[in-house]
Amino acid sequence: MSYQEPEAKIFACSQSVYLAEKIAESYGVPLGKVTFSKYSDGEFQPSFEESIRGLRVFLVCSTFPSSDNLMELLLMIDAAKRASARHITAVIPYFGWARQDRKDKPRVPIGAKLVAKLLETAGATRIMTMDLHADQIQGFFEKPVDHLFASTIFLPYIKSLGLDNLTIASPDMGGSKRAYAYSKFLESDVVVCYKQRKKANVIDTMELIGDVKGRNVILVDDMIDTGGTLAKAADVMIEKGAISVRAICTHAILSGEAYEKIENSQLAELIVTDSIPLKKESSKIKVITCANLFAEVMHMVQNNNSISGKFLM
Hints:
Elements: E1 8-12, H1 17-27, E2 34-38, E3 44-48, E4 56-60, H2 68-82, E5 87-92, H3 111-122, E6 126-130, E7 145-148, H4 151-161, E8 166-170, H5 176-186, E9 189-199, E10 202-209, E11 216-224, H6 228-239, E12 244-252, H7 258-264, E13 269-273, E14 285-288, H8 291-302
Parallel strand pairs: 1-4, 4-5, 5-6, 6-7, 8-9, 8-11, 11-12, 12-13, 13-14
Antiparallel strand pairs: 2-3, 9-10
Organism: Flavobacterium okayamense
Protein name: ribose-phosphate diphosphokinase
Keywords: ATP-binding, Kinase, Magnesium, Metal-binding, Nucleotide biosynthesis, Nucleotide-binding, Transferase
């Protein structure tokens, strides 16, 4: 009996193996073997340890800091192209550099556009990602982009809480569209936080647009970095009479003193996905895996099926 190669294989960058293993298990194939050779100066070289000729390969890699993650992904794409892979799908649960989506002052780069061009130049034929910081980043690519929404896994959890007097909140004006989308499905009120910054990651003032008195509030955002915005928003809402405040953030960057800020804040709970691995455990942080969502969409892409049913926003 001859052995038949699967039509698709899944590989992972070194810092995304934890997630890729779960995706591969849900997809129904073993995680592919790839090794990284390292030179004494820190340079590295990926090598696929099995044939991928004529196959679709899914390369799982969240491009969170350090920049080695992005470089690993670029090298793996190039290696797959030179190994005659038929399709190369870059699966990027967290798309780094997405906050650099425009020139907000003179003489700065548009980092998200640069990353898009790097991925395409390396040889990616498709991009799969989740909750981009700005939807328009899809337009930076000339290749198909599957932009998934974590709302498909967050909404069932919110409903399971059974909260009365629910209000969805956006921590800033830019996230109001996301908040309204959640509120539409949950049939809840919406509150928006208006904040002013003296500099990046430092909030000067924050005001609420809407009423939270006697409400159970859930803040929704695409990412949490230093945690300052969400901690401040929770404190302000409790001061304004909210019963409880929770936060849902797709990507848990959690840099600097973020863990301490979350622990010391009025937040009852922070719910995140595993697009980025947590640096440490926290009693206030709950992780919901996005592996099944990616595995299902990868199956749909492989079988040329519509994925529109996975878009709840």
